[in-house]
Amino acid sequence: MALQTDAVRVAKAPRAATTRRRQNPVGVFGALSHVALIVWTILVVGPILWTFLASFKTNPEIVGDAPLALPHDYSWAAWGRAWDKAHVGRYMLNTVFVVGVSTFFTMLFGSMAAYVLARYRFWGNRAIYFLFVSGLSFPVFLALVPLFFVVRSFGLTDTFTGVILVYIAYSLPFTVFFLTAFFKTLPTSVAEAAMMDGCSHTRTFFQIMMPMARPGLISITIFNILGQWNQYLLPIVLLSGNVEDKWLITQGIANINTSAGYEADWPGLFAALSMAILPMLIVYIVFQRQIQSGLTAGAVK
């Protein structure tokens, strides 16, 4: 019996060694992936952290021999200058209004269009869908000149209405593309049961399907907010220098940099950048779980 046990043990030893050799590459790639993630985190978090710390420094500290050193005195003076003298507060309020309204209507129109394209079959369904998707492959800067003339022909240049309408059109392709795939993963039995109980198509959509699609709606809402908040080309084309009181946050930050000349207020510039970064950072941290669940819900189902 002992001889048989030893023979089985000897026979299993090569198999175990082969298994370990096969698993080693997986472990190596896993370690390399962790190293890559750490490096990527440093590359992303490092500049943001330095920007925040530079807002508490002085010009000599930023351009001196030790630009990476910590501030000698944590003063909020640069934040006050950026908020009052550079009018960052006004630009931020303008941006909150424009992004809030445009995101609301983008999600309303985009979710309605995506639901119809995903759940109903009619002539031209795929053509309309591919027309929306084709907007993803068209660079925005190629449409700036015709876009300006179209908006001007409607008399909407230098107005929030023109910017909001362009933001909605700019964000609809990705919204429809994302939500169409998400609505296809939802069960049809619930919608059919609602229709049998007497619900109209509109009521079924708003009271049944939209709550079920909440993870996807939250995810794409955050992406739209981030994209519209950081938009620079569209506002600078649609809002000229004659309406500085209607500028958005990106225009205001660019103006701080270009109008300073040789007397650049680097702490004020970094304070303005920090004011623009912090709201989006907070939004992403608060809704991080919803974003992840929305991106993976379709794959899990």
Automatic annotation (TrEMBL):
<feature type="transmembrane region" description="Helical">
    <location>
        <begin position="26"/>
        <end position="50"/>
    </location>
</feature>
<protein>
    <submittedName>
        <fullName>Carbohydrate ABC transporter permease</fullName>
    </submittedName>
</protein>
<feature type="transmembrane region" description="Helical">
    <location>
        <begin position="204"/>
        <end position="226"/>
    </location>
</feature>
<feature type="transmembrane region" description="Helical">
    <location>
        <begin position="163"/>
        <end position="183"/>
    </location>
</feature>
<comment type="similarity">
    <text>Belongs to the binding-protein-dependent transport system permease family.</text>
</comment>
<keyword id="KW-1133">Transmembrane helix</keyword>
<keyword id="KW-0472">Membrane</keyword>
<keyword id="KW-1003">Cell membrane</keyword>
<dbReference type="InterPro" id="IPR000515">
    <property type="entry name" value="MetI-like"/>
</dbReference>
<keyword id="KW-0812">Transmembrane</keyword>
<feature type="domain" description="ABC transmembrane type-1">
    <location>
        <begin position="92"/>
        <end position="287"/>
    </location>
</feature>
<keyword id="KW-0813">Transport</keyword>
<dbReference type="InterPro" id="IPR035906">
    <property type="entry name" value="MetI-like_sf"/>
</dbReference>
<dbReference type="Pfam" id="PF00528">
    <property type="entry name" value="BPD_transp_1"/>
</dbReference>
<feature type="transmembrane region" description="Helical">
    <location>
        <begin position="129"/>
        <end position="151"/>
    </location>
</feature>
<feature type="transmembrane region" description="Helical">
    <location>
        <begin position="91"/>
        <end position="117"/>
    </location>
</feature>
<feature type="transmembrane region" description="Helical">
    <location>
        <begin position="266"/>
        <end position="287"/>
    </location>
</feature>
